[in-house]
Design the sequence.
């Protein structure tokens, strides 16, 4: 400032300095030859967001873009030639953060030696009559500056080039680079994206531009500053700028912690599913072992007892009525025990499974009819479906549980079972004509039946769905891929 006072030689330099600094208009003094700023007052620096030393090497041409540069040169020509003492110009100044504001400039030529200068006095058109910044714009900038993440504008021109017209102060925090650097090199953002995620970024952007729908993308970026990878979420709304391109306004946020938590939940669920599958496999193995012991050892011993009892009964003396009655009671007791052992053995591991899943399904349907008196029709495209033992057992257990639920809750008059096989999928549908199932019933704390069926289906690599049947009632659908056999590896 002192050099400027000496060069211009104004006797009122002291009070003039106070007036210029206190003015709410923007005031610029420029070298006539180079147009470098010799002085910029505080109002201009605040509007432009530059410090005084940052403006020292700049000219008015650095504050505008495109055709506006030619307009400034044209406005200065008559002042240089001495054919006019002042000129007026309306243009747009670009702040340091990339945002713009309209300004009306009055240009004057101060020709006194030793340093002739141009003086520009600017009035911000985006301000109120008193010259104060527009409160609405100030609030918007304040909101953007304090919003977690990066508030941005992204422009894709019709010629294929891209730019970031606006980037909030969150740019450095989120991306590890300054807003100025990213605006100077817009392609840098795409290079930050991990190679595996770049195609999805381009695809979602193209879809948003084609349909003018919201752009929502999640992906990973490499932060060189911290040598780390971040997950970010991009949400923005597109609008067409005529003859220019498509511009999105939106928000980028750091979702790394949420993604890591999501991955941890998936890993835990996968581990629980593997554990559940292993537990079910061990349970089935133990059931099979106990069923064999009951059938072979206990059943064999009971049969031997019955034969020995028959021999003793034949040797009882004639007239021993009381002993004969006792022997008859013991014989009937052995029969009931053999029947109970047979029933328990079948419950633990139906031997009918050895004949295949279709035969097992049909047998269980007949048992259901016999016990509850509810017709159960089985429809199957195949007489036999070749399944690994673990898949056949799991599917059979799900079917048993489905019938159990129908018997307890459905109040059904009929059950229809469809068993189909495609090249890669086996599907089992169990439909009843009962009262159906409400969504709230499935969420009851002790509703373990459907949960157990779902866990079994998941353990087999399949899925289970419960919904309404066409004829009313409930429809349970189990789909299992034939190529997947998770438990077989245990």
Sequence:
């Amino acid at each position: 400032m002192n050099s400027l006072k000496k060069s211009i030689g104004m006797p009122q330099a002291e009070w003039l300095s106070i007036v210029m600094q206190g003015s709410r208009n923007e005031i610029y003094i420029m070298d006539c030859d180079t147009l470098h700023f010799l002085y910029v007052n505080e109002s201009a620096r605040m509007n432009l967001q530059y410090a005084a030393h940052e403006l020292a090497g700049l000219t008015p041409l650095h504050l505008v873009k495109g055709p506006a540069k030619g307009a400034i040169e044209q406005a200065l020509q008559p002042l240089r030639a001495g054919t006019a003492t002042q000129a007026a110009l309306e243009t747009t100044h670009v702040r340091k953060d990339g945002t713009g504001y309209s300004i009306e400039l009055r240009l004057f030529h101060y020709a006194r030696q030793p340093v002739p200068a141009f003086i520009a006095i600017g009035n911000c058109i985006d301000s109120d009559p008193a010259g104060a910044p527009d409160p609405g714009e100030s609030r918007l900038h304040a909101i953007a500056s304090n919003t977690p993440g990066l508030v941005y504008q992204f422009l894709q021109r019709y010629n294929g080039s891209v730019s970031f017209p606006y980037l909030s102060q969150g740019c450095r925090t989120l991306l590890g680079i300054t807003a100025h650097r990213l605006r100077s090199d817009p392609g840098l953002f795409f290079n930050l994206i991990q190679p595996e995620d770049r195609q999805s970024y381009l695809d979602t952007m193209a879809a948003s531009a084609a349909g003018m729908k919201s752009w929502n993308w999640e992906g990973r970026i490499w932060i060189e500053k911290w040598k780390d990878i971040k997950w970010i979420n991009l949400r923005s709304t597109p609008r067409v700028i005529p003859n220019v391109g498509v511009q999105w306004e939106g928000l980028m946020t750091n979702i790394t912690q949420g993604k890591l938590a999501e991955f941890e939940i998936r890993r835990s669920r996968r581990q629980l599913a593997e554990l559940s599958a292993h537990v079910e496999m061990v349970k089935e193995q133990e059931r099979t072992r106990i069923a064999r012991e009951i059938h072979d050892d206990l059943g064999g011993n009971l049969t031997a007892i019955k034969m020995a009892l028959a021999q003793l009964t034949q040797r009882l003396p004639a007239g021993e009525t009381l002993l004969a009655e006792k022997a008859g009671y013991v014989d009937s007791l052995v029969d009931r025990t053999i029947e109970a052992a047979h029933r328990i053995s079948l419950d633990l591991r139906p031997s009918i499974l050895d004949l295949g899943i279709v035969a097992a399904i049909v047998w269980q349907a007949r048992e259901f009819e016999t016990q509850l008196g509810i017709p159960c029709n089985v429809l199957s495209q195949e007489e036999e479906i070749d399944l690994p033992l673990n898949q056949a057992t799991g599917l059979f257990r799900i079917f048993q549980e489905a019938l159990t639920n129908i018997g307890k809750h459905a109040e059904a008059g009929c059950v229809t079972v469809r068993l189909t096989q495609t090249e890669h999928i086996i599907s089992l549908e169990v439909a009843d004509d009962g009262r159906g199932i409400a969504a709230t019933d499935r969420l009851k704390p002790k509703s373990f039946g459907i949960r157990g069926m779902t866990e079994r289906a998941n353990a087999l690599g399949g899925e289970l769905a419960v919904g309404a049947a066409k004829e009313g009632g409930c429809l349970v659908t189990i789909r299992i891929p034939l190529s997947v056999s998770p438990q077989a590896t245990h």
Remarks:
- The longest strand covers residues 228-241.
